[in-house]
Amino acid sequence: MREVRIRTASGLRGTPPVALGAWRGVSGRRYVVIVHDLAAAPMIEAPGAVVLGVRRQEDGIAVLLGAGHLGSVVECAAQAALDGATELHIHRLADTAVERDAMVRDLVDDGID
User: Fold this and answer.
1) Of the candidates 6, 5, 84, which has an alpha carbon nearest to the alpha carbon of residue 38?
2) What is the C-alpha separation between 22 and 113, in angstroms, rounded?
3) What is the chain's pLDDT, residue by residue, as a tens digit (113 residues)?
4) Which of 21, 76, 78, 83 meets the CB 3.0–4.6 Å disulfide criterion with 51?
């Protein structure tokens, strides 16, 4: 799996641009995410989202450390911080728990929740 950067030109109607990215799973499927600094976790409300814990290396390469969708963003962020994450990548487009489970399995070999 790997991150694919998505470029945004500017915000719409004066709003700041949203940091978007995408991850390709083992299956080749692409999952679009919003990129947040780990410190922003308490301000993120994303029930039903898949949360990716990511560490950004000095060369800009993102390393996926884990993924899950159970619990709150704050709980997922706490685990991600323990794993060494510096960013949270939030995917909000999976409608059901089955879809979220499949995404986690596609991105993380052992399917950590």
Assistant:
1) 84
2) 19
3) 667 767 655 555 666 667 889 999 999 999 999 999 998 888 888 888 999 999 999 998 999 999 999 888 888 889 899 999 999 999 999 999 999 999 999 998 654 44
4) 76
Starting at the edge strand that comes first in sequence, how are the strands of the sheet with 50-56 ordered?
A: 2-5, 20-24, 30-37, 87-91, 50-56, 62-68
The β-bridge partners of 24 are: 2, 30
What pTM, to 2 d.p., does this model score? 0.84
What is the spatial distance between Cα 24 and Cα 42, in angstroms, rounded to a whole number?
A: 27
Which helix or strand (DSSP H or E) is residue 54 part of?
A: strand 50-56
Burial of 33 by CB count in 10 Å (0-12 exposed, 13-18 middle, 19+ buried)?
buried
- Are the beta carbons of 47 and 35 closer than 8 angstroms? no
Cβ-based burial of 54 (10 A; exposed 0-12, middle 13-18, buried ≥19): buried
